[in-house]
Structure to design on (712 residues):
């Protein structure tokens, strides 16, 4: 399903806008909440009760669904607010969304970084209206609704209004301008107009006392008449929301086309930073869509933090770092380094203000809400950026926070015992110690680095030497097979523990189903027994969850890059498509889409190790716009192949790297230093239909070449 939406977005911008049905998980669409099997339908058609703002992209059950400030164009009485109408003739472009309601209203929306502009074309009607509902939030599912805690709304006359709603402790302010000459404007409460009223104040709202409220603009409409609604948002009050609106929309003039073209230009710039040549039309479409999805989140808003008063970037909707740190964050580092630096600066500030680095961070204070998923993931991103030597971060101060964060949550038990359950946190924390040691060493704190590196070797305590797999424990959204093949800092030791290259590769073969019968996929609403029997297979579940994203590349470390090529080619061919259902699982804020981008380029970033693994690309030629200019991946012997249903009657056989050169010099290794990519250059890969010996004897770097001793 992907769990994405077709609404208007801006690259890494603060605001999105889309049709709102209340369905899971973005507020758009027809489906009920679901985490296993095929989802149930909430509605039998696409429909909308209006258009909301601040949607998630690709997430699952995070209990934070936004969809604030619903705007509804109506030719019905106010009593009908909340009713849904069928959507027809939907159209979606980068930065633009349009649809017809079957009430006869044509609806168009575009967004800027901190603004949204709606344009409604009405049929002939004596009493048309635009209704803005400030009380709306969340989804129409159990426990999905978000209720404002406090609110105020003000009608300022002359087509202007403003309001603030405090949602989950965060004050969201909006300044509104409506281009509707001759129309009246009024406040309303509980679907009743308040003639002459200019302000509503709610000091305390609860689920039991909430009644919808907002403002309304109403008047006669000629057939084809358009009404423009301009909205500026801020997390720092109505005045800053007004300033944001003026900065992006200007003053007193229709702004829809201006904002639309500005956002379109931003998308052209960002999407143009990765270019591919060759490939079928379907493959290019999936690639472009994947790149687009990779650049929607996180939201990075300058000078908008509601939790600290200082200027600077504020990043939210990092939902969750557990999903994006391996793929999407390295992609931002490569092609949007300025915004990526802003994101890291924001994370450091969150740690300073709230006490720990977030595993996921939303538009609400509280950085530890995802602590069950993983530990200490920001350390990987910081280590990579420090190794690249990028300016703008106070690394001495960052190191202080990195070290302190290692002792929080599960880190305290890890510090004392060298192992912690859930056992995957042992891997997280040992890896974070390794990443932090690299930063400490770069800052010449060698004593600290040595101590951290010693503790990083405690990864071994997570594994059972009898099985070569992780020890029995509880696992988050996976099992010990899923988590046993992650790319660690000591893969040489990990492979030795499993019994060597052949034994490790055999385990991977079993995990990926080599020689096994096809598996029946779960259907709609599978019962627990059906799901349990599937999990008991201990098989690769496709790319529909974070633990499995990097597993295909584990073969590189045991001298079998040919296996990586086979699995990645199969995933690119069969698991992604151009229609609904074109993603094999939650897109997870771009984490899955970024996997597709990297895999199509023939590269995979090893987060925290300043490293890229090399594989056969899906395109004849590709180029990334990076800090140092352009990094080009070109091939000889490339063969085009179709994807998905287009390839049913064609042989999807993979291609294998036969030899490689980097900037004209032979490359015998299956990996690159990340600096080689970020500085720009040219990677040439000669491809062929049969596996070769390329890279078999030159493995990616590891912390050690022998089995490390267990720490006691």
């Amino acid at each position: 399903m992907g769990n994405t939406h077709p609404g208007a977005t801006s690259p890494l911008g603060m605001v999105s806008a889309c049709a709102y049905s209340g369905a899971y998980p973005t507020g758009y669409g027809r489906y009920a909440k679901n985490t296993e099997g095929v989802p149930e339908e909430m509605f039998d058609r696409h429909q909308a009760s209006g258009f909301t703002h601040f949607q998630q992209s690709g997430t699952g059950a995070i209990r934070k669904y936004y969809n604030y400030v619903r705007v509804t164009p109506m030719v019905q009485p106010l009593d009908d607010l909340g009713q849904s109408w069928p959507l027809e003739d939907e159209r979606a472009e980068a930065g633009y969304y349009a649809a017809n309601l079957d009430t006869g209203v044509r609806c168009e929306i575009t967004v800027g970084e901190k603004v949204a502009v709606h344009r409604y074309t009405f049929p002939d009607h004596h009493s048309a209206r635009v209704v803005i509902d400030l009380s709306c939030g969340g989804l129409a599912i159990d426990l999905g609704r978000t209720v404002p805690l406090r609110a105020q709304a003000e009608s300022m006359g002359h087509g202007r209004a403003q309001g603030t709603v405090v949602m989950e402790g965060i004050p969201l302010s909006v300044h509104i301008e409506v281009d509707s000459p001759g129309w009246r404007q009024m406040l309303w409460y509980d679907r009743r107009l308040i003639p002459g009223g200019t302000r509503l104040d709610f000091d305390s709202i609860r689920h039991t006392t909430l009644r919808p409220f907002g403002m309304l603009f109403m008047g006669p409409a000629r057939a084809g008449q358009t009404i423009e609604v301009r909205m500026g948002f801020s997390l720092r009050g109505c005045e800053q929301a007004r300033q944001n609106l003026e900065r992006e929309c200007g003053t007193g003039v229709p702004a829809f086309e201006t904002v639309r073209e500005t956002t379109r230009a931003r998308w052209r710039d960002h999407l143009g930073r990765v270019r591919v040549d060759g490939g079928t039309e379907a493959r290019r479409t999936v690639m472009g869509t994947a790149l687009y999805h990779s650049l929607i989140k996180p939201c990075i808003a300058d000078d908008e933090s509601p939790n600290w008063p200082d200027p600077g970037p504020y990043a939210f909707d990092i939902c969750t770092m557990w999903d994006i740190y391996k793929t999407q964050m390295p992609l931002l580092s490569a092609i949007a380094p300025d915004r990526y630096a802003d994101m890291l600066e924001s994370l450091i500030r969150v740690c300073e203000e709230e006490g720990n680095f977030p595993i996921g961070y939303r538009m609400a204070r509280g950085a530890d809400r995802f602590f069950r998923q993983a530990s200490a993931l920001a350390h990987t991103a910081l280590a990579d950026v420090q190794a690249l030597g990028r300016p703008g971060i106070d690394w001495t101060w960052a190191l202080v926070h990195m070290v302190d964060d290692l002792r929080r949550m599960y880190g305290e038990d890890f510090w004392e015992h060298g192992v912690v359950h859930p056992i995957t946190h042992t891997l997280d924390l040992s890896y974070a110690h390794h990443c932090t040691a690299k930063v400490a060493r770069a800052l010449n704190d060698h004593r600290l680095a040595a101590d951290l590196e010693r503790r990083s070797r405690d990864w071994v305590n997570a594994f059972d030497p009898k099985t070569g797999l992780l020890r029995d424990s509880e696992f988050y959204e996976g099992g010990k097979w899923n988590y046993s093949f992650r790319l660690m800092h000591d893969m040489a030791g990990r492979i030795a523990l499993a019994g060597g290259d052949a034994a490790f590769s055999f385990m991977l073969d079993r995990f990926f189903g080599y020689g096994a019968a096809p598996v029946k996929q779960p259907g709609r609403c599978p019962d627990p027994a059906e799901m349990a029997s599937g999990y008991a297979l201990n098989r690769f579940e496709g790319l529909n969850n974070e633990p499995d994203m990097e597993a295909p590349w584990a073969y590189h470390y045991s001298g079998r890059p040919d296996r990586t090529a086979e699995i990645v080619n199969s995933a690119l061919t069969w698991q992604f498509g151009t229609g609904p259902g074109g993603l094999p699982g939650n897109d997870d804020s771009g984490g899955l889409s970024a996997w597709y981008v990297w895999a199509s380029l023939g590269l995979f970033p090893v987060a925290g190790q300043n490293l890229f693994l090399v594989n056969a690309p899906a395109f004849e030629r590709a180029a990334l716009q990076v800090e140092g200019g352009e990094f080009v991946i070109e091939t000889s012997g490339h063969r085009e192949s179709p994807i998905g249903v287009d390839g049913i009657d064609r042989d999807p056989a993979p291609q294998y790297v036969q030899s490689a050169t980097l900037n004209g010099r032979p490359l015998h290794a299956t990996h690159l230093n990340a600096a080689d990519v970020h500085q720009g250059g040219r990677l040439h890969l000669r491809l062929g239909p049969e596996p070769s010996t390329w890279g078999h004897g030159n493995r990616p770097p590891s912390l050690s070449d022998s089995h490390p001793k267990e720490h006691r």
